[in-house]
Specification:
Layout lengths: L4 E4 L2 E4 L14 E12 L2 E2 L8 E5 L2 E2 L4 E4 L4 E8 L5 H8 L2 H5 L7 E7 L3 E8 L2 H13 L8 H13 L7 E8 L9 H10 L3 E7 L12 H8 L3 E4 L2 H13 L2 E6 L7 E9 L1 H6 L4 E3 L3 E7 L3 E5 L5
Parallel strand pairs: 8-9, 8-11, 11-12, 12-13
Antiparallel strand pairs: 1-2, 2-3, 3-4, 3-14, 3-16, 5-6, 5-15, 7-14, 9-10, 15-17, 17-18
Helix pairs in contact: 1-3, 1-7, 4-5
Amino acid sequence: MRIAVLLLLGAVVVAASAQEPDVTFRTGVSLVRIDTQVMQGGRPVPGLTKDDFVLYDQGAPQPINYVAADQEPLDLLLLLDVSDSMRDAIKAVNSVTGKALEQLKEGDRVALARFTSQFSLVVPFTEELSKIRTASEVIAAQDFSGGTDIIRALEESAAAFQSEKRTARRRAVLMITDGKAPHYFRDEDAMRRLWAADVVVHALLVKSKSKESSLPIDMPKLTDATGGEAIRADQPGAAFEELMERVRRRYTILYPLPAGTAEQQRTVRVELSEAAKKRYPKATVRARRGYVWSPDAGTSDTLVPPAPM
């Protein structure tokens, strides 16, 4: 299924038609994109179609133009916390990096970054996954030291995505951290930058060995605000493989941009249809919960997600 999509702060402009006979797209139609996860029994639910979803914008049901899983290529930034408390966890993750990357498809790109109180983009986005494996091995063998600034790392990650050309590619950050940081949690600023970059954030939270005084960081709140998830793990290696699979196996849902006014905050809710609920009675759906409508300097409509609700 081929679609040419222009992403503008979370909005998409579709300029082609899907191959499915009952799905058509008009050139220049602005569509809202919702990156959606459906899980049951700890596993992604495969094979869903647009008839399996119900989507509400401002409480009103919306027509869904397009639903696909594993179709759009993925840009994934692996973000490694290399503060002193993370030594064992990063080494465990490195031992399975090659296997975890097998979850990706041809055309997917990966970047690798490390952070303490400073952020460093070690490998820019590339389809050559061998570069990621090699760099991961180098990082795991280096000294681990320094404090932790999770929010700065996420802001810099957003900037890395912003420097990339806007395409139909899905965008995600997978952060591996113990979630401990002595720095002020500038969550609203970070979220705005992540939303502007159209990034879904996922976090693998490992057991902390940090002895430093740390402010509590609500990572699930942060990831939920982008439609991502945070999972806690005693076995970082195995959990890394599992989370990689979840990141890759998500649905893209597109629906027409409703009429709105500048800076209007709109809510979004994604559910399974009644028929799908009967087939998957224990399924859970994860997607971002809203956006803010705003004009884009006379070129196209743009969408920016709201502050966490």
